[in-house]
Design a protein that fits this description.
By secondary structure, the protein is α/β, with parallel strands linked by helices. Helix content is 31%, strand content 23%.
Length: 261
């Protein structure tokens, strides 16, 4: 569905999104966009509405009102399968991997390759998985081990490879470096920048300010379901972001920190 792109349209536009649960407004009139090769941080406390907003984009939840456009085309995302058809893939904090299966089985989970006789094409899945993982991490050797035996970084590589293999254009990354050690965190950060260089647009949900300032081009902060600030990363510092997250507003003496000042 991404082939019907409108020239110069953002990769994704979420316009005036609301989500209500009874009388509770989990998301209240939020708009955000994303362009190819851009990383936009979506920040806020637990319960601020950021995960709810991204679940709407992933097709896991329906908005109460508001519109979503992908490459300028209206996108009615009723399910994760609909989102995938628009090139939207999600890497959840839990990674959604089957611990008892190996890397090829996880990469193709739910989208297995078949022979012309309708049987699982295990040889082709192994070959395709080896190539996809090699492109992201040339040192990935444990193709046949259950993923329960793999490190957190290796598991992240499988989750990222799965999204890229199926030609994701929009990637939602939910706390991608949570619970990783320093070297694996650096590896995932490097992968994120490589995906950005390839033109993939990334929404990054993170509590890690190092990730945010190292990886993001722009940030949007949510507080009590509302967008309380969206900025180029060079125009804010960590104290500004924390003020938005905690108080829902910038420091009283705030001025743009970057060249726009």
């Amino acid at each position: 569905m991404l082939d019907t792109a409108i020239p110069d349209a953002p990769l994704v536009q979420m316009v005036d999104i609301y989500k209500q649960f009874g009388g509770i407004h989990a998301v209240e009139g939020v708009s955000v966009d994303l362009r190819p090769g851009e990383v936009v941080g979506v920040l806020g406390h637990n319960g601020a509405g950021k995960s709810c907003l991204m679940r709407i984009l992933s097709g896991a939840m329906r908005q109460t009102s508001g519109e979503i456009f992908v490459n300028g085309t209206p996108a009615d995302l009723k399910s994760p399968q609909d989102a995938k058809q628009f090139g939207i893939e999600t890497i959840y904090q839990t990674l959604a991997l089957a611990n008892h299966l190996d890397a090829p089985a996880n990469l193709f989970l739910g989208r297995e390759l078949k022979t012309r006789f309708g049987n699982l094409d295990e040889a082709r899945m192994l070959s395709e998985a080896a190539e996809a993982l090699r492109q992201l991490n040339p040192n990935f050797k444990n193709l046949r081990d259950p993923v329960s035996r793999l490190s957190g970084g290796q598991r992240q590589v499988i989750a990222i490879a799965r999204a890229i293999y199926f030609q994701a254009k929009v990637l939602i990354m939910d706390e991608p470096t949570a619970a990783l050690g320093p070297s694996e965190t650096a590896m995932v950060a490097d992968l994120t920048l490589r995906l950005k260089d390839e033109g993939i647009g990334i929404f990054l949900i993170s509590h890690d300010m190092h990730d945010v300032f190292d990886l993001c081009d722009r940030v949007m902060v949510m507080n009590k379901g509302q967008n309380v600030g969206a900025f180029r990363i060079e125009d804010v510092n960590k104290d500004d972001i924390l003020s938005l997250i905690i108080k829902g507003k910038l420091p009283d003496d705030w001025a743009p920190r970057g060249s726009a000042a």
